[in-house]
Amino acid sequence: MHPRMWTCLDRSGLKVQPGGFYVDPARVVSTAVVTHGHADHARAGHTTVVATPETHALMRARYGAKYCERAVELRLHESLTLGEVEITFYPAGHVMGSAQVQLNYRGSRLAVSGDYKRGGGDPTCADYEPVPCDVFLTEATFAYPLFRFPNPEWELERLLQSMLQFADRAHLLEVYSLGKAQRLIAMLRAAGWQHPLYAHSSILAINEVYENFGVDLGEVRPLAEFRQMENRERAALLLNPPHVQLPLQANPDGRMLYCSASGWNAVRKHARSRRVDLPLVVSDHCDWDELRQSIHATGASEVWVTHGPADSLREWAKESTDLRVLDLKEVWNA
Predict the structure, then answer these.
(1) 56 backbone dihedrals φ, ψ, rounded to 5°
(2) What confidence category does residue 322 fall into, taking pLDDT thresholds of 50, 70 and 90?
């Protein structure tokens, strides 16, 4: 039985009908299977949430103890059955606790990727593994051939060199509070940077969860401590989430360098428009080559695309006579 016969897409998201649940629903539902802790996938208010222990801890830190009525923990490589559907989690390599979901109904297998990052290199989460399936529902954030990311360690070296070259200036690094911040902190520590870092309170809250799961991030101080220092460490590195404005008193003489770590920095116009002094191309998603490798690795004959464009993947799939690519919204009309 083809997966489109036992799933549907409604206002809440992807519904798995014989299991009575949704995967990463956009609205509050009775039962939600959640792939990871980012807010566009993990929302508060569901009655039952099935997720990894790490994702539950992150949701608890962000939304409070009453983020759901019933928390069901499912570890990576473990399975459970909801209704008539067997659910198995595979590591996604995106952030701590992130999982891909293999759904098996009467021998028909659908894999839902959530967000994922192929290639490893993130010391704060389990490496991505391909999920065997008949249909692969993939995110496609960077599904254009122009997105081919450099080695993240090279980008980190650019940051370290800048901090040495401009030792009289603090560096303000814009990073997402969940995942990107912890990944870069861990990479900095591995590269030998053992000085204290300064971070926004939202990053510190997530750091605490990571530390509780055994990820050592070293000394990271509240950003307020840097603002209050009379003799500031000019070579200090400050971490701040996007769109959170740093108070002016943190940079009274205008000598701070503005840095950003994002896959979108591969588009030079993006970095210029944001007036970034040091744009670093570091992503927690797959680039164009990694997306195609991941699709092939699943063995799927059909791909459903969400969170990004399907056009380039559809054109690429024409090279293969046994691979079909559909935008998720097209599936049930095909």
Answers:
(1) -60, -45
(2) confident
Using one digit for the tens of pLDDT, what is the confidence trace for 187-244?
999 999 988 999 999 999 999 999 999 999 999 999 888 866 655 556 789 999 988 8
Angle at 127 between CA 199 and CA 243, to 5 degrees: 30
Is 292 buried (19+), middle (13-18) or exposed (0-12) by CB count in 10 A?
Answer: middle
Residue given tokens 């769109």 in the structure block: 243
State the average pLDDT for the chain.
92
Which residue would you say has higher pLDDT here, 103 or 123? 103
Contact (Cβ atoms closer than 8 angstroms) between residue 219 and residue 161: no
Burial status of residue 247 (CB atoms within 10 A of its CB: 0-12, 13-18, 19 or more): exposed
pTM, two decimals, is: 0.94
Can you read off the two tokens belonging to residue 235? 């070579």
- Phi-psi category of residue 154: left, alpha or beta, with phi > 0 → left and psi -120 to 50 → alpha: alpha
Cα–Cα distance list, 34 to 42, 43, 70, 72, 123 (Å): 6, 9, 13, 11, 22
Q: Is-contact 257 171, C-beta < 8 A?
A: yes
Phi-psi domain of 199 (left: phi exceeds 0; alpha: psi -120 through 50; beta: other): beta
